[in-house]
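This follows on from our talk about sequence and fold. Go ahead and set the record down below:
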Amino acid sequence: MRIKILNFWYHLHGSFWFVPALMTVAAIFLSQIIPEIDKHFLYRDDTQQWWVYSGGPDGARTVLSVIAASMISVAGVVFSITIVVLSLASSQFGPRLIKNFMNVRANQMVLGTFVATFTYGILVLRTVNASVEARFVPGLSVTIAIVMSLFGLGVLIYFIHTVSESIQAQNIIARVRRDLENAVDRIFPEKLGQGSDLSHGPIKRDYDIPTTCDSEVCQVKAECSGYLQAVDNEALMRIAVKEDLLIHLGHRPGNFITRHGVLVTVWPGDRVDEKLSKKINAIIIMGAERTLEQDVEFAISQLVEIAVRALSPGINDPITAITCIDWLGDILCQLASRKMPSSHRYDQHNSLRVICKPFTFEGMVDAAFNMIRQNSRSVAAVSIHLLETIAIVAAQTPTKKDRAALLRHASLVAHGCKESFSADDDRKDLEKRYEAVVKTCNGEPASIALNPETYS
């Protein structure tokens, strides 16, 4: 239940309508409270505050009508500009980045300001009474409406400024990088050398796995298709302990699972019934898209998508690709110092209860470099910079196994470009960068000849 609430809040908090809806509700509340304050405390025939609107009912109606009409018109303009920006971002940087624009709190507050001011003006307008018997002009309410409209003018200027900045490539990359860094801190909070002494990667204790685990198992099927967005690990452990089970979760957040596909494998299988299957399905959240809640590779893929699109012939922007590589290198340096969770989870009695498919540093490196490496073979500047970034990451990677993953990608970059680079100077530069990676990874300095004839 907890993971469902958190997942619901994640989607609600990131929706474009949530903040405007809250601001509109606040405006409705104010439109009920402020006229009452006017009526009981401020509206007197013998006294009048200098800072409160002092016009008659016709003037108050005119002011409120103009404010309401102008605010709803500007709200339509803001909405139109937002749609145009989303269309440009989708075509140039990828459709998966639309959510990053929608999540910008400033844009949500801008739209909410105009809608809330319109709502407040319309609801206060109905309280103005011009009859002789019950004449009432809510001066304070009208004054607040004027202040809100002036504030809206400043917000409109701010919105134009932020929109012009939000479509710049470097700002988009920086925003994605912040989301990625937050995801790394949330999913991998422990650094190497902190906390309990767990191995860096899966704990391999074969004797913990029952000998009959391959034959006496039951597969729990997925009730729907979609991407695995989040898993309630605590609830999964509680089920395994309560029912005395060993559960193997063969998927991790970000993987796509088809309906009736294998969700988890349970041992012993004779304890699995329909009720238990529904419990397991309930604590595993599926959706139509990948999210950052527990899927750190999704944020990496967003930076990769920007870089790959920048390398396409239609855009041809290697500088943007290099910027993405720089930030990917920064994140990999952080991941290299983080403790990756084990694939084996134990209960309080040190009994193996859950086997999952964890994220690994090698997998992160593959997600970061594979597509960029494959699309930059003919772009010398990007390929050379990719090797430079790998050398920087390798210098901050403490384990030999992780450095081997980086060295493998460096070798693929070097050999993949051997036929693409026609200039000798480019091949020599690539050679030097590759040798620097080899030395940094504590391998023997290797000199590779990038002459195409050597490999024929």
Notes: The first helix runs from residue 2 to 13. Residues 14-167 form one domain. Residues 194-207, 444-456 have pLDDT under 50 and may be disordered.
